[in-house]
Amino acid sequence: MSKPVTFIFVAPGARQVSLVGDFNHWQPQAHPMQRQPDGAWIVQVPLHHGHHLYRFLVDGRPVLDPRAQGVARDARNEPASVRAVS
C-alpha cells in the first residue's frame, strides 16, 4: 500500500525542477515538479512504506534536499537525500 508524499524544493530562479529517486528509477521525466507563485516547486508522489533515496534535478543539476531526513549513498555511490515513509 502506498501513501501520498509531498516534496517541496525552493528554487525561485530555476526554470525546471524534477524529482528523481529509487521509486522512479532516477528518471527525471517521471516526476516533473510544478512551480508555485512563491518560487517553491512541488510534487506529490505515492510511496510505499520504507526509506527512499532521492535528489532534485534543478535545471539539470543534481541537488540534495536541505529538508531531508538524512543523506545516504545510492547504488552508484553518489549522495542522495533520504525520506522515510511510515
Write up this protein:
The protein is mostly beta strands. It has one domain (2-85): Immunoglobulin-like, CATH 2.60.40.10. The protein is 0% helix and 56% strand. The protein has no helices and eight strands. It has strands at residues 2-10, 17-21, 34-35, 40-48, 50-58, 61-63, 70-73, 79-85. The strands form two sheets. Strands 2, 5, 6, 7 and 8 form a five-stranded antiparallel β-sheet that branches. A three-stranded antiparallel β-sheet has the order 1-4-3, with no helix packed on it.
Describe the protein's topology.
Layout: E1 2-10, E2 17-21, E3 34-35, E4 40-48, E5 50-58, E6 61-63, E7 70-73, E8 79-85
Antiparallel strand pairs: 1-4, 2-5, 3-4, 5-6, 5-8, 7-8
* Alpha-carbon distance between the two ends: 11 Å
Give the DSSP E fraction (strand runs of 2 or more residues).
over 45%
What would you give as the CATH superfamily?
Immunoglobulins
Shape, per Cα inertia axes = globular
Order of helices and strands: EEEEEEEE
Structural class: mainly beta
Summarize the amount of helix as a percent range.
under 10%
Total tally of structural domains: 1
Stated plainly, the CATH topology is called Immunoglobulin-like
Biggest β-sheet description: 5 strands, antiparallel
Q: What would the average pLDDT be, to the nearest integer? A: 97
Counting DSSP H or I runs of 4 or more residues, the number of helices is 0
Q: Please provide the count of β strands.
A: 8
- Quaternary state, please? single chain
CATH architecture: Sandwich
Low confidence ranges: none
Using only C-alpha atoms, the radius of gyration works out to 12 Å
| Text of the CATH class | Mainly Beta
